[in-house]
Amino acid sequence: MAASSPAIINGGEGSPPVFVLKSVSKSYSARSIQALQNVDLTLPRGSFSSVIGASGCGKSTLLKIMAGLTSPSSGSVKLVGKPVLGPRRDIGMMFQQATLFPWLTTLDNILLPIKIRDGKKASDARKPSALALLDLVGLKGFDGVYPSELSGGMAQRAAMCRMLIAEPDVLLLDEPFSALDEISRDFMNMELQRICLERQATTFLVTHSIPEAVILSDVVYVMSARPGRFIEAVEIDLPRPRTLEMMSEPKFGTYTNHIRSLLDKGAFI
Ligand SMILES: Nc1ncnc2c1ncn2[C@@H]1O[C@H](COP(=O)(O)OP(=O)(O)OP(=O)(O)O)[C@@H](O)[C@H]1O
C-alpha cells in the first residue's frame, strides 16, 4: 500500500513537480524543540495530498515552511524549481478560522487580497469574478452581508472564495473545515474537491481526520510523533470524482484501518 509516486488527479504527467522538499528539518531553538526531521516530499501538478499525524507532530510547521512563512533549519524547499525564500503570491492558504474582517462585507473581504496587491481599480474589475465564486460555493446573494450575519460554514466558504480570487495554482490548507459540523464539513470537502478538479490546483491539506484524508487525497502522508517524519505515503486508489457514498465501500475501510494502525504505531516511533 506504500507509494513512492502519487497518482495525479488532473493529468500532470510529463510536467515537472510543483513542490519538491528534500531532507527538510526544523528546530525551534528558543524551546530546543525539533519539530521536523528529514522530510522529503514531491507534489506533482494537480495532485491532492494530505498529511495526518498526532497533535504536535509538526504538520503545521511543515505547511508554514512550504508557504515560506518560516524557514527550515536544513534541507531545501522548491516551488516549480525555485527555492521558497518567503511568502508567495501564487500560493493560496486557508486556516481553521475564516478570519474575515468584520467591518467589510463578504464581497469586500473576498476582493481584499486583490485590492492590497493591485489597487482599488483592479479589485473593482474583479467584482464579477468574486460574485461568480460566491455562486460557485453556494453563497449567491450574500455579497453585501457582513461576517457577523454568516454561519461558520458560510464564513469558511467566503474564506475559500478569498483564497481562490487570486487564482493560486497551489493551495495549502491547515484543517480548514475542522471547526464545522460533520454535515457542513462533508459538503465543503466535496466542494473543495470540485474546485480543485476544475482549477487543476495542486493541493496539500493538514488534517486530523483519517476519513477526510482518504476521501480527498491521491496520497496520504502519515507522520510520526515529533520530530515529524513520514512513516508511509499511502496511495489512495479510488476513482475521481470521489463521492461521500465511497466512504461505505470496503476499500475505503481498508485504507482508513491501515492509516489508523500506522498512526497507532507512529505515536511510539
Ligand atoms: N513558533 C514556535 N516556536 C517554538 N515551538 C514551536 C513553534 N511552532 C510550533 N512549535 C512546536 O513545534 C512542535 C510542532 O508544532 P506544529 O504546530 O507544527 O504541530 P501540529 O502537528 O500542527 O500540531 P496540531 O495538530 O496540534 O495543530 C510542537 O511541539 C510545537 O510546540
Automatic annotation (TrEMBL):
Keywords: ATP-binding, Nucleotide-binding, Transport
Pfam families for the chain: ABC_tran
GO molecular function, one term: ATP hydrolysis activity
Keyword ATP-binding attached: yes
Domain ABC transporter: 19-250
InterPro entries: AAA+_ATPase, ABC_transporter-like_ATP-bd, ABC_transporter-like_CS, ABC_transporter_ATP-bind, P-loop_NTPase
Protein name: ABC transporter ATP-binding protein
Classification of source organism: Bacteria, Pseudomonadati, Pseudomonadota, Alphaproteobacteria, Hyphomicrobiales
